[in-house]
Amino acid sequence: MADELHDTGGKVRLHVEAALSDGARVVLEDAQAHYLLHVMRAKTGARVSLFNGRDGEWLARVAETAKRSCTLVGERQTRAQDATPDVWLCFAPVKKTPADYVVQKATELGVRALQPVFTRRTIVTRINEERMKANAIEAAEQSERLTVPEIREAVTLDKLLRAWPRERSVLFCDEGGDAQPIAKAAAKIDTNSIAILTGPEGGFDPAERDAIRSQSFVVPVTLGPRILRADTAALASLAIWQALRGDS
Amino acid sequence: MADELHDTGGKVRLHVEAALSDGARVVLEDAQAHYLLHVMRAKTGARVSLFNGRDGEWLARVAETAKRSCTLVGERQTRAQDATPDVWLCFAPVKKTPADYVVQKATELGVRALQPVFTRRTIVTRINEERMKANAIEAAEQSERLTVPEIREAVTLDKLLRAWPRERSVLFCDEGGDAQPIAKAAAKIDTNSIAILTGPEGGFDPAERDAIRSQSFVVPVTLGPRILRADTAALASLAIWQALRGDS
Prior knowledge:
homodimer; alpha/beta; CATH 2.40.240.20; Alpha/beta knot; 8-stranded parallel β-sheet; 13 strands; 32% helix
């Protein structure tokens, strides 16, 4: 397997915090060292790909291994850092498996930030941010992203709206009758800095919906005649935005 | 709960095979009768919504109940039958949970037919068509669709290509370098009858990819710079097509 890692020139792809450059030494510990040394069975000399969200992607070589850690040395940059489309996803947290799924898929679809939002009908009361972060890192590693989406601290809908950066448009996935088809709305928005906002299972309550729709930065959109689950609406909106205005 | 069912004028929504009309009698048995009578606790007089994929949506009243069955009588049509966009999804089957998810999400996104395809790198060797059908029905009931997508018998990729109706375009989710961005490709396709084709985890093998790309009806498309999982690619493509050319 060490040979295979070596031969494929870095099929294993890991997100690290350390700076990456020619000759930079990166020490992996704990889960990452375990994965590389004991799951992938990398030996000294094996090559892996590293990214940190700032310095692009680097091929690095395993220089030293110990029982619980491993040192890599940067060899050459294989991709320059690129810009992640400036799309946030603000979503009412859902139960564990769908939440994992939303984080994973939104990361693959290139979201820049994930913002859990508590609403009146949100059933989930605790967010496992560490779990969200681990899911986001894994999906970023596998999808060849050069960044990991930011996982924001959960806030209430009121707080989210009060503190909103007003120059950022919000595509609000609305079940109401007068929302515009999303493709039409996306074509008209005059900024590439947006957020997608989706509700909990059961939707926003009427007062929340009014509060959202009264904001100047909100554009209510519809995804068509069918009622989508909250997670489907979030991912469909993200895919559509990326295809029309993002980098797909 | 019977009152609630009654008051909401048909919040329970069931797919049936029987013809629906004013005064039509529809007998529910087994799982549907159990669900309606024992889970939702419907009593005589309760109203539910029914659809069969042909006669639109009907409000029906529970007329008689027995221990294991229940008879409903059609009262009035609440929605006329509409046309489902003519989009098929041809996908290499994936393991159980993602497969459930693909069927559920594709149904919500309005797919007309689901076609499992065996490829050289497909790891799954058996398809549970009954399970797929049950997932599709449940998602159709919950998403307010008036149809249930057709679940096709699994075929090999060779057979699929040989028997392909040539007037139907295939959006082929391709990892290759020269594929067009999906939004651009979707705008140019001169038919609304299409299929989306996605590969297994690990992709099509090179010979399969060549065979697919050599077909005149195939349009290779890309979903952007990130590598998507097979199920993400399928659902993103479907969402984008529906927004641009379907009914979203």
